[in-house]
Amino acid sequence: xxxxxVRVATGAVFGIVLLASILYNNISFGALFALVTCLAVNEFxxxxxxxxxxxxxxxxxVVGGMYLFFAMFMxxxxxxxxxxxxxYLMLIVYNFxxxxxxxxxxxxxxFAYFALSQLYAALPFAMLNILTTFGGAxxxxxxxxxxxxxxxxxxxxxxxxxxxxGRRKLFERISPKKSWxxxxxxxxxxxxxAYILSIYHPMLSTMEWMGMAIVVVVTGTWGDLIESCMxxxxxxKDSGNILPGHGGILDRFDSAMLAIPSVAIYLYFLEAFNxx
Length: 276
What we know:
Layout: H1 2-24, H2 26-52, H3 58-73, H4 81-100, H5 107-132, H6 142-165, E1 169-171, E2 175-179, H7 180-200, H8 206-234, H9 249-272
Antiparallel strand pairs: 1-2
């Protein structure tokens, strides 16, 4: 009972901080997710250092991840966007050259896991900044917020429906508790949320909002399974313990890691084909 109360309390505080930071303004949004990026990259590096005995610099990976977030945050505020990424590219090149002069650890593992720290743990949060500029009329909070709304609906629907009638395993090898019935229930709840959003935020049509919800539900489920797959291979239950009752930052944002870039791609194609 105590563990449940801790989990609920942590989830409530986390949800309030997330909502307040996204809704208040772009500075509070940027501050929160810059911190999340820092913690996520650091957590990922600690895991692979322990698992693979890698020796690349955690500090360089964290600085790189945070700078990538900063560059994306400033993308619509500068006249020469490419110049924003020059320091980041220099850091990546420096890290690769640095490995040539080291004698400890596997250079190949260090190359691979450093790159993964940027692609997996940093890039998704950096790409949230692209969603905040959607529509081109200042800070747009509803796009990043909608991803988390759909994920929360998907998780809640999957839990309650899965607990009640879940029979057919979705991906038993990696996550034995997930069921097709639960996933469908979560998807239906997310579609309901999409319909409500279409009423109050008609920047997308009802069908476009629902399409976005489906993208989030499907890729969010894959994102959850990807992190579960990594943890299973590492032989760990949680990626960290920074969030009591919920594990680590990667545990809390696992579904979002794939959903965020997928939504960015979805919106890009809507614009490219003049659907919007």
